[in-house]
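Before a colleague's protein record goes any further, I have to sign it off. Thanks in advance; the entry in question is below:
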Amino acid sequence: MMIDNREHIETLLFDKIAGTISEQDNLVVENAILNHAEIRTMWEELLLKMNTPKAASFLSGIDTEYAWQKTNYRLSTQKRSPFKSRKWQLTGIAAVLALVLPLMAYFYYQQRKFKMEAKIYASKQIHLETDDGKLVEIAPGRQVSLGQTKILATEKQLSYKTGAEVQGRWATLVVPVAKDYKIVLSDGTQVWINAQSGLRFPFQFSNGKREVYLTGEAYFEVAKNRHQEFVVHTDNADIHVHGTSFNVNTYNAGNFAVALVEGSVTATTNGQQIDLKPGQKAVLGSSRLQMTLFDAQEELGWMKGTYLFHNQRLAEIAPVISRWFDIKVAWETDAVAEQTFTGEIDRKLPLAVVLSNLQLSSGIKATVKNGVLTFK
């Protein structure tokens, strides 16, 4: 990566610390931090400043709604992005605070989502965390009691039984990199959760809607109940369903896709909606939902431990390698990231075998050093 796109990298640093960066952009930033001392110093200074008591005090005391409205108004009235129109007129940490703190008001307002994502990135163990802070590590054969809730974990699945007292009690199942897991909800709905994902759910659904919140990717087989709608909330769109099978992917910030296997669903966002039939997929692109067809073998291959790709850019394939093999991925130049490939990744194989197959089929070079996989 050349440093001539410094302004773009600076902008991505702010996205990264705020928790809104996409996987693809995060790989670009990680590569820049790793290979460029100037960017690395900038990142370290930003982290240092945001961890000070002064910054914490500022964030805890702000009027988030007013601050965001004010910031949003300033951005909407400018013809050009402030990140591109200003060249660090302030210097050092003062510039960092001047640019970051107003925007952090909005991000702080959404702290629950970011905390969930942070746990997913940091954890190495599948675990369940209740909203009141109780933590349960998932281990095969383990049985745990949380009040009247009895939790049973096997190697690949979590299930539970509840009592009346748990009405309104929520928890989040966190699945870290290199793992996948299944949960059976109280109504019988089954959810297969992919690596680096999280599902927030109530131990017992209320008499109204059945609602859950997803970060990452999961496949749902929703128990049929025509009297109680099932809703999957994501950061960018919602899925409304009564009983059906579908896959939801929200890995990249700002992106969303739901692929319907059986039944019918409605995807909604910002006043838009698309009703899907089996074999159809709703994708959020350019702030609008669009309908397309999908290949079930490619879309659902992750459930069997395989990832199929056809004429896909390395920048799109790399996040899968990172999630499945728990390794950071970088490349020497942007041109390498733009190369396209067709093939298959089997997560049951050692990483060395996967890389060997990729190199033999494409001619690309790959090296692993200090926990970082670099493509050349």
Q: What stands out?
A: The first helix runs from residue 6 to 18.
